[in-house]
């Protein structure tokens, strides 16, 4: 089973459809699953909530072979650190606690890109906070 975060977003929606097309079992974390088309809703297990909630991610990642994970944009965040670490810390603990062996994460600006370098410490926060403790992680940045 593959767990998918932010499945209603631009990126997560496409990831979800690709995984479903391959016939994989999928569990999604969604605050509101109503945007899913009926065909998608029929084929996924929905765990309602936000993936910054330790209880939600622990339940969502239990038994998952792999997780697709990203930090949602939050223009109202008090700081970059808060925006990224509030999501990353519960996820890292749940990856370790649930023994997730593979995590595919989306970086903030694309690791190693000129845009990320120009952002200076910003991408450092996002990149260093990526969920690679205890699980092999693939970055899907450009
Ligand atoms: N590496 C790169 O080159 C690259 C390129 C583009 C984007 N990105 C990164 O990808 C992320 C954006 O992805 P996207 O374009 O798919 O975003 P998006 O279209 O804006 O969708 C946001 C997703 O996050 C969910 N979400 C928002 N706030 C949430 C919260 N507090 N708790 C739980 N879920 C929440 C939304 O769910 P609801 O339906 O509940 O609102 C939705 O599924 C950003 O972090 C951005 O930095 C990286």
Features:
single chain; 142 residues; alpha/beta; Rossmann fold; six-stranded parallel sheet; 6 helices; 6 strands; binds NADP nicotinamide-adenine-dinucleotide phosphate
Mind explaining what this structure looks like?
The longest helix is centred in the middle third of the chain and has 19 residues, at 80-98. The chain has 6 helices and 6 strands; from the N terminus they run E-H-E-H-E-H-E-H-E-H-H-E. Helix content is 41%, strand content 17%. Mean pLDDT is 86; it is low at 121-134. The protein is globular, with a radius of gyration of 15 Å. The chain has a 6-stranded parallel sheet, with helices on both faces. With 142 residues, it is α/β, with parallel strands linked by helices. The protein has one domain: 3-Layer(aba) Sandwich (Rossmann fold). Helix 3 (54-61) packs parallel to helix 4 (80-98). Strand 4, helix 4 (80-98) and strand 5 (102-105) form a beta-alpha-beta unit. NADP nicotinamide-adenine-dinucleotide phosphate (NAP) binds at residues 6, 8-12, 31-32, 50-52, 70-73, 106-110, 141-142.
